[in-house]
Amino acid sequence: MRRTVSRAVAIGALVMLAYGGAELVHFRAFCGKHLAWLRRQHDPAAVVVDDGFAVARAGDAIFTCETDHCFGIGGCHVDLGCYCAAASLSADAVAQLLDARSCVVDHLAPAPTDATGACRYAHCDDHIGP
Q1: Pair 26, 38 in one domain
Q2: Which of 5, 17, 35, 90, CA to CA, is 20 to 30 A from 61?
Q3: Residue 44 backbone class (left: φ over 0; alpha: ψ -120 to 50; beta: rest)
Q4: Tally of CB atoms within 10 A around 82
Q5: What is the distance, to the nearest Å, from the Cα of residue 107 to the centroid of all Cα atoms in its chain?
Q6: How far apart are CA 3 and CA 129, in angstroms?
């Protein structure tokens, strides 16, 4: 009985270690928002978001924001994302709500047909506020 329990615990520990390792690899090499930040560092006109499920609602503006993304002992890196929020909010207010390094307005009145800016076709990563 003790041997069976010990083996189950060891297998569970190995599975958790493998999962944590996979998450660390994803964080370091495949984080989409960090890759967007890197693209913008090399090319300020690069696209951050041009597809996805979240789209701007009526009365929303789209902001691009730099945030810190940390993974325990794996360290931290900078992410760049598109966020939909009420057009009445300032970039500083959105940055404060997100606890972001900085935010700038990308589109004051986004449209699904708009192929300009960093956040295209009214797509965003997330909605901020009600």
Answers
A1: no
A2: 35
A3: alpha
A4: 29
A5: 18
A6: 53
Same domain (yes/no): 45, 84: yes
Residues 23 and 41 in one domain: no
**pLDDT digits 0-9 by tens, 102-129:** 999 999 999 999 999 999 999 999 999 8
- Please spell the DSSP secondary structure of the chain, one letter per residue: -HHHHHHHHHHHHHHHHHHHHHHHHIIIII-HHHHHHHHHHH-TT--SB--SS-BPPTTEEEEEEEEEEE-GGG-EEEEEEEEEEETTS-HHHHHHHHT-SEEEEEESS--TT---SSB-TTB-SEE---
Q: Whats the size of the chain, residue-wise?
A: 130
How many domains, in total, are found in the chain? Answer: 2
pLDDT of 49-76, one tens digit each? 999 999 999 999 999 999 999 998 889 9
* Strand-strand pairing, 126-127 and 60-70: unpaired
Structure tokens, 95: 């940055």
Q: Which domain holds residue 51?
A: 32-127
19 and 36, same domain (yes or no): no
